[in-house]
Design a protein that fits this description.
The complex is a heterodimer of chains A (488) and B (131). Chain A is of the alpha+beta class. Chain A has 14 helices and 26 strands. In chain A, the strands form 8 sheets. A 5-stranded mixed β-sheet of chain A has the order 2-1-7-4-5, sandwiched between helices. In chain A, strands 8, 9, 10, 14 and 15 form a 5-stranded antiparallel β-sheet that branches. Chain A starts with a strand and ends in an 8-residue tail after the last strand. With 131 residues, chain B is of the alpha/beta class. Chain B is built from 5 helices and 6 strands, in the order βαβαβαβαββα. Chain B has a 5-stranded mixed β-sheet, with helices on both faces. In chain B, helix 2 links the parallel strand 2 and strand 3. The longest helix of chain B is centred in the middle third of the chain and has 13 residues. Strand 23 of chain A pairs antiparallel with strand 1 of chain B, so a sheet runs across the interface.
Chain lengths: 488, 131
Amino acid sequence: MSQITLTLPDGNQRQYEAGISAGHVAMDIATSLGKKAISATVNDVHWDLQWPIEEDCNIAINTMKDTKPALELVRHDLAHIMARAVQMIWPDVQVTIGPVIKDGWYYDFDRSEPFTPDDLNVIEKKMKEIINNRDPIKTEIWNRVQAIQHYQNNNEPYKVELIETIPDNEPLRMYWHGDWQDLCRGPHLQHTGQIPADSFKLMSIAGAYWRGDSKNKMLQRIYGIAFTNKEDLKAHLNLLEEAQKRDHRKLGKEMSLFHMQEEAPGMVFWHPNGWMIYRKLQEYMQRKLDKSGYLEVKTPQVVDRKLWEASGHWDKYQENMFIVEVDEEGAREKRINALKPMNCPCHVQIYNQGLKSYRDLPLRMTEFGACHRYEPSGAMHGIMRVRGFVQDDAHIFCTETQIESETKSFVNLLTEVYQDLGFHKFHIKFSDRPKKRAGADMVWDKAEDALLKATQAANCEYELNPGEGAFYGPKLEFVLTDAIGREW
Amino acid sequence: MILHRAILGSFERFIGILIEENSGKMPLWLAPQQVAIASIITDANTFVDEIGRKLTEQNIRVVLDKRNEKIGYKIREHSLAKVPIILAIGEQEVTNRTVAVRRLGHKTTETLSLDDLISSLKTDVKAPDQV
């Protein structure tokens, strides 16, 4: 066996035989650490204590005090424990998938009877029993043929389907929570007793299609939330209650501001009250923009695909576009148009018509541009995430040397507007090139460099948000904090 | 070079955020209806109309409530609709040409002369960039 060197966060190095588990390393550092360890971080990878370490690496042992890994594990283990509890209570239920999401987890089940809110209490009680049992959590690698056989014998067709999607060269990792087993990449805790039994809650039941595809069977999804201590759970439940009280969908109805209906999903019917707010806000924005040297324009809604092909939208954004086919008089083929999902290409058309010389720059072109984007129904939320909306959009055509001053004056304008509207706290994220993008890397290098320098020159504090830029360029995102601490 | 920027993002989303931030109680300049004028007795209706006319002349958005309902009921309804200012007009107000002003979220009322109300509202309803 070869020797490997592990480097601890404090710089200390330790030698072990290759293949030692992270758990053994923790035990070797101190028995007390080994007992309270929940996972390790090995070269930035979240590592199960049972997994072997084969090469020299940096290693940190995580405990419940390490909030990020702790939350991930607690929520992930609760997903498994909930599925186990459900199958203990209703052995006929088939299990599918159960990922960690913001603030908690969900698990999708196939069961002929619908779950009821009372069922949630029963499941929660059973989960607490499992936690109190302190069942060991074990992991194994299984042979593919045996794994499929196992799930077929146990009447778990969804698991068979999942295995078939895993590439042949990837090992099939299994996890046992006590005597209950599930296909899972891990990592997980050492035993179920590491989960604080008073810091989670099952929240709701919803329908969800298998693999998110409406052609597939409708499953039942149970949502839960979990934290590392009961104070955090309580604080979060208070926040939810507060958020519910001020939910814009509820207030929109009470104040008769707007409504939405099935015939136009994701599109707003503004009532007189809501439209007054809209108008006053738009008039305010128009005054601000007029004073800041912007020129307002209006461009078409329906535009031939040729323009979208040229702009890259047809290639990179087509799945989000509403396509409109028109039988034009005398034409042999239908004309294919799209509702504009963004205003940019249309503004460029105006720019191309009128530019005389560089002396005309900067040109600040603004539009209250009605855009349409196809969003899956699950992504929509009241009037906050919709399919038809109006952007307060602008393009500033400028020379490279003007980027800095334009960025500065934009940040000033934005700060004024946010303050006028009652938001005093916001932070900036710098988002660079995404995987799916248009344009050569060299152009991206230049654009990112220019925007970053301008941001720094404008004395803006920012955090990096890698890979989250638009497909056509890097961006600065301004994130608001609202009255109850939520970020928008 | 092109800089692409938005401040609100979309009006729909931003108005959603504004509604939740304010729990529906929009700042006066954005409120759909700024003043509700409610009569306590039928005899006050003419004065209610007059107040309505005078406020509208100042571009103040009003809703008149001359229904034959109890004043408590009217106040509750306009409070639920989050109208920032509710005026209750009864016999005393008609005689003295005053208004009983109740601000959203406050339990107390304040009595003002109609002229004082108008002159203070003229400034209060202005958008923040016009103050």
